[in-house]
Every structure is written in structure tokens, then in C-alpha cells.
Amino acid sequence: MRMNATLRGALAAMMVAAAAGCATFNAPWPPGAGEGAGAGADACGRAAYERLVGMNAADIDPTTLPPGARILTPDMMVTQDYRAERLNVVVGADGRVGSLACY
Asked: Which of 13, 23, 43, 102 is least buried, going by the fewest C-beta atoms within 10 A?
């Protein structure tokens, strides 16, 4: 059975759309997010918590962190909304705090 040109074109367009849906998109963090320099780089006050870096995450009392702070462990699912005032305590696979970031 032969396909007409219109049907072939529609099928090709659907295949392209389906393939595009499989692509990933990695948007860059907003300026000042994470560990970058510039205005707002310490909007969450992370400098006051630098003592936590290298510490065992299990020893951190969450009540000593600012409201909204998150302790992020490997493979943990978290929201990706950007909030410059939110402190994120990033824990490595070894269970120790590897870094602090504002996002």
C-alpha cells in the first residue's frame, strides 16, 4: 500500500516532534546563584554557616539553620525554584557537607 505525500509528511513531522520530546534542557542558574561572585552571591547568609563544611550531615541540628534552609543529600529530589535567600547545605556521598549555596 502506498502512502500519499501528505500522510508521509505528517508522519515525519510526528517523528520529529516525538524525538524533540526526548531531549533534555539544562537551563543555566540565574546570576548570583550557587557559588558565583557578584551581587546577591550571599543573599542567604551562607558565610555565617561555613563552619558546617566538612561536618557530618547527621550532626547538624536543622533548628540552627535559617528558615527555609535545605540539607540536600545525593539522589534527593528537590524543587528547582530559584530563591536567592534560601540556604542549601549540599551533602556528598560520604555523608559530609561539601558546600553551601544560595538558590
From this structure: 23
Rg (CA), the chain: 22
Q: Residue 1: its pLDDT value, please?
A: 52
pTM of the complete model: 0.62
Residue 101 CA to residue 43 CA, distance in Å, equals 10
19 CB-side CA count, 13 A: 6
Does position 80 have pLDDT exceeding 60, yes or no? Answer: yes
Residue at 6 is within a domain: no
CA distance 86 to 34: 10
Q: How many domains does the chain have?
A: 1
> Domain containing 76: what range?
29-102
Given a cut of 90, whether residue 24 has pLDDT beyond it is no
